[in-house]
Amino acid sequence: MKFTFSKASRKRGVAAVVTVAASAMLLTGCVAPTGDDSGDGDANASGSITVIPKSLGNKYFEASDKGAAEAADELGLSFTEAGPTATGSADQVPFIQTAIQTGQGAIVIAANDPAAVCNDLKAAQSAGVKVVAYDTDTDCRDVFINQATVEGIAQGLVDLTSAHLGAEGGTIAILSGGANAANLNAWVDAMTAIIEEDHPEITIAKVAYGDDIDEKAYQEAQGLIQSIPDLDAIIAPDTVSVKEAAHYLADTPEYQGKVWVTGLGLPSEMVEYIDSGVIEQFGLWNPEDLGYLASYAAQALINGDITGAEGDTFEAGKLGEYTVGPDGEVVLGPMFVFDSSNVGDFSF
Ligand code: RAM
Fold first, then answer.
1. What is the domain class of 150-282 according to CATH?
2. What is the pLDDT of residue 99?
3. What is the C-alpha separation between 120 and 104, in angstroms, rounded?
4. Separation of 233 CA from ligand 1 center, angstroms?
């Protein structure tokens, strides 16, 4: 499914003509989906970006891509959000290929499977399209916009869980999202290492995967809670899993107070579970800022202001100046902990 809003159409709120083609729904503004407004449909490479989230329908990416669109508007870029509704390894490939064919200035992608999209991203780069990874990394990109450090996220979630379990510790499970996602696997691996190194009182009984899909995440949460008799806690490092684990607990009061859940969640999706006491704390960052920063990085690459080399600096609008770190990574900031004292302060 693809939504294209040129700068002009966004401003005029132009009614869209919807056509269905191949595996994608295309919503095209009545003006050329480029910055040139020539109406001839030829893309103006330097003035257009396509953002490809892991999937459409995930409110985390709705928030991040809202921020990306805001920055594109500030920069006068034509903005397209395009992506699959499923999270399979190759589901994003058609949207990369369309971005190449339409001569986009940059692709901004959160890859479900970093290896599966690499050849197509290399083809994009060979065609002169800049590639920005955001939220989760892939090898074939110019820069990676990371929400927070892997170590900081993993330590933060383990610290929340350890504080809950206390000195006696307990048995936990990890419920992650897509099994091939670079970000999620990095966080799972780092949490596992921290627990093995620093928390002999905590046992990880199982790691399960909900594929970033609501129904599967709910079923996996149910399976963990029903199959691990002495389960004390679940750590869910993706917004879908933590939401659905809390959802299952809300549906089964007999497990509330017995199984404790935390993870990375959206305040807008988790506030009901905080208010009802089903969960107490969770972590995240501002996904809108993540997308906003990614669009500014894309523009800096298109303009040649940066190449992605360590030490490159670029201005990111309201977020200020950022510096490219080792391996082309740009870090937005630290993870933030949400609880009953602040969860209502945020709308994303
Ligand atoms: C889900 C996705 C995303 C991750 C967040 C925390 O929305 O897996 O990649 O960053 O959770």
1. alpha beta
2. 97
3. 14
4. 20
From the list 68, 86, 76, the residue with the least C-alpha distance to 287 is: 68
Q: What residue spans in the chain does CATH classification 3.40.50.2300 cover?
A: 2-148+286-345, 150-282
User: Region 49-55: what's the mean pLDDT?
Assistant: 98
Of 276, 275, 280, residue with least CA distance to 261: 280
Question: Can you point out the beta strands (E) in 88-165?
Answer: 106-109, 130-134, 143-146
Contact 132, 72 (CB under 8 A): no
pLDDT-based confidence at residue 4 (cuts at 50, 70, 90): low
Q: Quote the CA–CA distance of 94 and 327 in Å, as a whole number.
A: 27
Q: pLDDT tens digits, residue range 183-241?
A: 999 999 999 999 999 999 999 999 999 999 999 999 999 999 999 999 999 999 999 99
What span, in angstroms and rounded, lies between the C-alpha atoms of 273 and 256?
11
Residue whose CA lies nearest to ligand 1 atom number 3: 238
Q: Are strands 282-284 and 260-263 parallel, antiparallel or unpaired?
A: unpaired
CATH architecture of 2-148+286-345: 3-Layer(aba) Sandwich (3.40)
Predicted TM-score (pTM) of this structure: 0.88
- Is the shortest distance between the CB of 199 and ligand 1 below 6 Å? no
Closest-CA residue, ligand 1 atom 6, reads 238
